[in-house]
Amino acid sequence: MKTKRIVILGAGESGVGAAKLAQKHGFDVFVSDFGAIADRYKSALQELKISFEEKQHTNELILNATEVIKSPGIPTTAPIVKALVKNNIPVISEIEFAKRYTTAKTICITGSNGKSTTTMLIYHILQNAGVNVGLGGNIGQSFAAQVCEAEYDWYVLEISSFMLDDMYDFKADIAVLLNITPDHLDRYDYKLENYAASKMRIVQNQTDKDFFIYCADDEETLKSLQKTKINAKQYPFSIRKKVEEGAYLEDQTIHINTHLKQPFTMSISELALQGKHNIYNSMASGIVAKVLELRNETIRESMGNFKNIEHRLEFVAKISDVTYINDSKATNVNSTWYALESVGSDVVLIMGGVDKGNDYSMLKDLVRSKVSAIVCMGKDNKRIHEAFEDDVDIIVNTFSAAEAVQVAYHLAKKGNTVLLSPACASFDLFKNYEDRGNQFKAAVKEL
């Protein structure tokens, strides 16, 4: 019998992880990347003697695949993907592929904002409780690489809409949907309902033995729920109203009630993560922990001592009584809204980059009430000027992190906050949002 040929498009973390797993299971594996492959991934492929190509996609080497595993970053409009569809060759995600080879259970977190923080917090709680747990998806080591090399009972996976688009038979044992706000609309024909439908794929294949945790305060989620059949046990969370089963806020205290006997309560002042959006993230994480019947003491301790991820509302320094915060991970408007909502007033806001069809109108009230100046950092800042010229007196253009920090330093007064929260993707001036955040931090340290 002829060996099945698996072709992997994209040689980043997920692609190389998928290549390792496919090789382990006896497939004929080929990796193709339209860009240059990073040295460490190239070395990994060479070590495993997996054939690959870079800076091109060769049709003859790809269109003979039995199945293709596609990097989430490659859009369906890419010529090679169109050719695969035309040739009826199945295209799936790394997560879909990896799940075939593990009996571990999965906790999957999606949403436009708060995914990484919530994923990390759930992982932190489970680790502290002694659960044999892996962390993957959009964060950390690829799911496929871990399935290949490790044996976990549970995985906590951060799942983007792009991953969900290529997932078919995959099932989340516990699915968490934090929110749905406009993001990546360029990949969804600029229609929010298409993006929302993609997010709702998080519940596909769930049965009545599974769990679905969602925000009952999020309008788009509630709209999508009306159009979706949910088989799983549902646990909503809300800071506006009391819920029977799920989580709610009352008297500055989180209350979590699941079908299990012992309810959980914790004052929001004791949470490691502060700010309204983080109450939601903590509630979602707490419900997951209660579903898994972890001890209240462990949950409370973990939610009180968690350290947030780098580049998400990360304190950098206080210089001449001005606070510098790195929120480079805010690659969409809603993330920047959350950031502004959680810091004090008198903000010098550094924003800009690659605009993904952003609608800045939701920021206008917060900008008007909290922002004294905007420092644009990007090649084309026209839309930011147009959006906020009536709300802020000072809008300045800069073309590097160092320049942006210097300008912000001169604009900020004592007691102010300089906040890098771009609301845009980073790849006009930087490799990625981490590079942008690191350059910002380095520039602050130079002051």
From TrEMBL:
GO terms for molecular function: ATP binding; UDP-N-acetylmuramoylalanine-D-glutamate ligase activity. It is found in: Cytoplasm. Residues 109-288 form the Mur ligase central domain. GO terms for biological process: cell division; cell wall organization; peptidoglycan biosynthetic process; regulation of cell shape. InterPro entries: Mur-like_cat_sf (IPR036565), Mur_ligase_C (IPR004101), Mur_ligase_C_dom_sf (IPR036615), Mur_ligase_cen (IPR013221), MurD (IPR005762). One of its GO terms (cellular component) is cytoplasm. Residues 311-424 form the Mur ligase C-terminal domain. Its EC number is 6.3.2.9. It comes from the Bacteria. It is an enzyme of class 6 (ligase). Keywords: ATP-binding, Cell cycle, Cell division, Cell shape, Cell wall biogenesis/degradation, Cytoplasm, Ligase, Nucleotide-binding, Peptidoglycan synthesis. Belongs to the MurCDEF family. Cell wall formation. Catalyzes the addition of glutamate to the nucleotide precursor UDP-N-acetylmuramoyl-L-alanine (UMA). This is UDP-N-acetylmuramoylalanine--D-glutamate ligase. It comes from Pedobacter planticolens. The lineage of its organism: Bacteria, Pseudomonadati, Bacteroidota, Sphingobacteriia, Sphingobacteriales. The gene is murD.
